[in-house]
Amino acid sequence: GSIVSMSSAAGRHGYAFRTPYSAAKFGVIGFTQSLAKELGPHGIRVNAILPGIIEGPRIDKVIADRARQLGVSNEEMTQRYLQNISLRRMTSRYDVAAMVAFLLSDAGINISGQSLGVDGNVETL
């Protein structure tokens, strides 16, 4: 069997002004590692996915709200967000789904207890 938990880049880096969210995502990583140790002897793999900024309506609203607060354009605010990602692009929901499918498949047969970033290498939040 295989279990895939959803954490976040915030579970690796912390996230100022979103402390409860970040703490919960750190908790998912600890839960994943502990469960991997408990279930591994039974042949069950447990991993966590750490998505970064997922493209779509939710982040568009976050960016628009933040741009409005700072008095900058949406385009400039988007670039500010992307500056913290090595690949300078957002992650699609399909990228996350592909990693989950990989971990659930036989291709991921020997991967357990890991926290895998699917985020273009988020450097900081």
Q: Report the structural category.
A: alpha/beta
**Residue runs with pLDDT of under 50 for 5 or more positions:** none
DSSP summary, beta strand count: 3
Order of helices and strands: EHHEHHHE
Number of H/I helices: 5
Largest sheet: 3 strands, parallel
Distance between the termini: 33 Å
Overall pLDDT metric: 96
Give me the oligomer status. single chain
Q: Please list the strands of the largest sheet in the order they lie side by side.
A: 1-2-3
Percent strand equals 5-15%
CA radius of gyration:
16 Å
Which outline best applies? elongated
Helix content: 40-55%
How would you explain this protein's 3D organization?
With 125 residues, the protein is an alpha/beta fold. Helices cover 48% and strands 13% of the residues. The protein is built from five helices and three strands; from the N terminus they run βααβαααβ. The chain has helices at residues 10-13, 19-39, 57-70, 74-82, 93-104; strands at 2-6, 45-51, 115-118. The longest helix has 21 residues, at 19-39.
Question: What topology does this entry show?
Answer:
Blueprint: E1 2-6, H1 10-13, H2 19-39, E2 45-51, H3 57-70, H4 74-82, H5 93-104, E3 115-118
Parallel strand pairs: 1-2, 2-3
Helix pairs in contact: 3-4
